[in-house]
Design a protein that fits this description.
Layout (H helix, E strand, L loop, with lengths): L3 H20 L3 H21 L3 H31 L3 E6 L8 H5 L9 E5 L9 H20 L6 E6 L5 H18 L4 E6 L6 E4 L3 E5 L28 E7 L7
């Protein structure tokens, strides 16, 4: 019984976030939060002994389940009609937008294949900045490995670098490819010249970020908050557009 207050606090926090996302028309994200919050409330329901409190929690659970079902029907209808579009605006200096947070609602259990269009459009870019771009793609791959899905193949379409960055790009991507193979994930590399940035999952979700994966600001120092934890890292202003297609195109 001593755990109930903490469990209830967690449930309230998650469900409050679900309602905020719902009111902002960020329906897929709100659906995930509703589902998590409902499960937490069900855990509370199992733990309480007082009958009046049980009635209260059952009513709350039913209310949230009804709303979650409404959202699910609405989202599925938009997806079926090919009309789903959601936009997230990340403000300058905002925090709380790690890859885990941003992509979690769309990296569902059935995802096995991912397409990443990730250009390095600035030639002769400073080596330190270029390293950050490579590390950001690495972090994205790590996020996929930690997700509930079982990704088996990642397609990367990027531009081939010139000059000093060419050998670094080849070496880094070769090392990453071998590392992913040890996790039973195949990295498929292709090169092209383009400016688009988007990420597609084989469950139909398409994510287009104005700055690609590079929307984080450089930390103020090596021992500053946000250096390691990207949920605490400040972001650059950008927009994230989310679409859904029943037929995910290959690169």
């Amino acid at each position: 019984m001593t755990q109930v207050p903490g469990m209830e606090t967690s449930a309230i926090s998650v469900l409050k976030r679900a309602v905020e996302l719902d009111q902002s028309s960020r329906f897929q994200e709100s659906l995930v939060c509703y589902q998590e919050g409902i499960q937490l409330l069900m855990d509370v329901l199992k733990a309480v002994k007082d009958d009046s409190k049980k009635v209260h929690y059952r009513q709350k659970i039913k209310s949230y389940m009804d709303r979650a079902e409404q959202i699910k029907v609405h989202v599925n209808q938009l997806k079926e009609e090919g009309k789903y579009h959601e936009q997230i605006r990340i403000a300058d200096d905002a925090t709380g937008y790690s890859y885990e947070v941003l992509f979690r609602p769309y990296v569902t259990e059935g995802v096995t294949e991912v397409w990443v269009i990730y250009p390095y459009t600035i030639k002769h870019i400073h080596q330190m900045i270029y390293c950050r771009k490579l590390y950001n793609f690495l972090r994205f791959c790590e996020m996929l490995l930690k997700a509930s899905c079982k990704v088996k193949r990642i397609h990367l379409l990027t531009s081939q670098e010139e000059g000093d960055n060419s050998s670094q790009q080849a070496s880094a991507l070769s090392e990453l490819k071998q590392s992913l193979q040890s996790q039973d994930v195949c990295l498929d590399l292709q090169y092209s010249t383009f400016h688009d940035r988007e990420i597609r999952f084989d469950n139909g979700w398409i994510i287009k970020i104005g700055r690609g994966l590079d929307y984080f600001k450089k930390p103020k120092g090596r021992f500053s908050i946000g250096y390691c934890d990207y949920d605490l890292r400040q972001c650059q202003e950008t927009t994230v557009d989310i679409f859904h297609s029943k037929h995910t195109k290959t690169l």
